[in-house]
């Protein structure tokens, strides 16, 4: 048996060693970068780089991130953790003041992106100009039941406003009706528009509305349609991300596609569970609490 | 005091008298018509006809619709009640089989329309060809936070697919940020596209997210933007229609604009309360139970 004190020491040492190997002992200038550029080969896994930082982050988390955080930076926040998170505010009643606050937090903590509704993309783009934080927006959100033509137009409009990442909702009803070809073409239409601007696409499959077979089919269709990520949840359905779903999704898409966990992620422990199961990006509205390692508090749902 | 038996007799007599005055003693061939054609002058109120049937229906309900129903048709269903209702199925996981069932029920009972997500408009249009039941769809739904450009494109796409009524969601976040001009232009853009096809527009203000002043401002902006209806709720927010909100909305828009109550309307009594408060259209998924006068049962939310 290893004692608690021995475990603490081991965790600290492994954490330090990981940090040295990552060259991450000073605040990383490359934080967030590399995550979002498809087709860049990762030296660790020889896959697209979307996996790289996340694999390292999962290792860091497993090794005890609190210890790492304390030694890596002068603040309590681990930049590798922050760089996993899409800082999200999608509730319809969000005001301009709340969007301004969201973007300020994203700059301060170094989140991968802010995820906002399309109406706010122009404002967020202005607020984040000159920062590495990307502006992510949602398409066909949250029902996924608009037409492909609409999703394509909505994507093009969002890109014109400055969106740098696209989270689209798959057509769940079409999938549940057996219209796999329609689902694939719907995703492919958005991917085509986005990739033409070198913008990545995450496909929300809304796991809470699917059985396991349907989840596997959805992930396969997203991969066939050349999506960059599959993502669990909108935050508007009854359930959010689970470790079991993340594992299923990762198993289906393999290492070359990202997996984003979203919906109900409220704490550092939730993030650790999700990355351990295979998630390479996290969607959360409780992002500040998460990176500060605060205990899980009031419900947040990525909404 | 009037006894219960006297009340029953009175209700029955008033019901019969109303039916005679409406010329509605046989199944009405014009059921549903007149409700949806803007600019047709109503002989009763000299306003646009969108008000006419609803005023009569409210009177019927007040006079005891069960009695009327029994004498007016060979079924238990009152066509004037059915013609008030947009038979609604907007949950993202709805399958083709459920859309087929919805359209069949709408034909059978004579609902004003089916209200479906844009992806299903083409299918519903095919299923309802040759019937007076319209196909209504939703735009910017349910968050209202897409761009005006997207809402315009989504509306145009829906019209090409055959949509005959448009329920759009107002930009709630913009309103709550004081951007009234943006809110008005957003509505006006959709109205312009729809009216060019002689298709009416209902504006969902999502009452659950607004205070009373904001509700009044929202209704005013919808009226200024030449919307045909204001509507309470998407069914996706925390609350749905209330009689108090319907009264407020009716007071603000006056008699020339329709008011649609939606969200949480589960029973015949709910419909009666809403029409008494000023509603001229009802959105419901429990429509069959409502017109059959079934007691309120499991929760439905217009979703």
What is the number of independent domains of chain A?
2
Examine the secondary-structure arrangement and name the CATH architecture of the largest domain in chain A: Alpha-Beta Barrel
Largest interface, C-beta closer than 8 angstroms, per-chain residues: A-B, 38 and 38 residues
Largest sheet of chain A: 8 strands, parallel, barrel
Order of helices and strands of chain A: HHHEHEHEHEHHEHEHEHEH
End-to-end C-alpha gap of chain A: 43 Å
Strand content of chain A: 5-15%
Full CATH superfamily name of the largest domain in chain A? Aldolase class I
Q: What does the oligomeric state look like here? A: homodimer
Strand order of the largest sheet of chain A: 1-2-3-4-5-6-7-8
CATH class of the largest domain in chain A: Alpha Beta
- The helix fraction of chain A, in percent, is 40-55%
Work out the helix count of chain A: 12
- Enter the CATH topology name of the largest domain in chain A: TIM Barrel
- Low-pLDDT ranges of chain A: 11-54, 62-75, 294-303
Rg from alpha-carbon coordinates of chain A = 18 Å
Task: Tell the overall outline of chain A.
Answer: globular
Which structural class matches the secondary elements of chain A? alpha/beta
Mean pLDDT score of chain A: 81
């Amino acid at each position: 048996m290893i004692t608690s004190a021995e475990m603490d020491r081991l965790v600290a040492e492994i954490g330090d060693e990981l940090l040295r190997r990552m060259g991450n002992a000073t605040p990383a200038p490359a934080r967030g970068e590399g995550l979002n550029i498809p087709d860049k080969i990762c030296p660790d896994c020889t896959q697209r780089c979307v996996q790289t930082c996340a694999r390292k982050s999962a290792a860091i988390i497993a090794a005890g991130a609190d210890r790492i955080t304390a030694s890596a930076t002068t603040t309590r926040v681990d930049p590798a953790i922050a760089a996993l998170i899409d800082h999200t505010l999608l509730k319809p009643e969000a005001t301009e003041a709340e969007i301004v606050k969201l973007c300020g937090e994203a700059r301060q903590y170094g989140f991968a992106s802010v995820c906002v509704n399309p109406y706010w993309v122009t404002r967020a783009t202005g607020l984040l100009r000159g920062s590495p934080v990307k502006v992510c927006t949602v398409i066909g959100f949250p029902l996924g039941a608009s037409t492909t033509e609409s999703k394509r137009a909505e994507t093009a409009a969002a890109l014109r406003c400055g969106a740098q990442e696209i989270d689209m909702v798959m057509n769940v009803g079409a999938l549940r009706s057996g219209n796999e070809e329609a689902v694939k073409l719907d995703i492919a239409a958005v991917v085509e528009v986005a990739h033409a601007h070198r913008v990545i696409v995450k496909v929300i499959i809304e796991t809470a509305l699917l059985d396991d077979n349907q989840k596997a089919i959805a992930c396969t269709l997203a991969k066939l349609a050349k999506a960059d990520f599959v993502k669990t949840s909108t935050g508007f359905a009854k359930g959010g991300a689970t470790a079991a779903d993340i594992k299923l999704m990762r198993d289906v898409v393999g290492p070359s596609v990202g997996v984003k966990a979203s919906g109900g992620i409220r704490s550092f422990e939730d993030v650790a569970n999700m990355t351990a199961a295979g998630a390479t990006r996290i969607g959360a509205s409780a992002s500040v609490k998460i990176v500060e390692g605060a205990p899980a508090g009031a419900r947040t749902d990525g909404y």
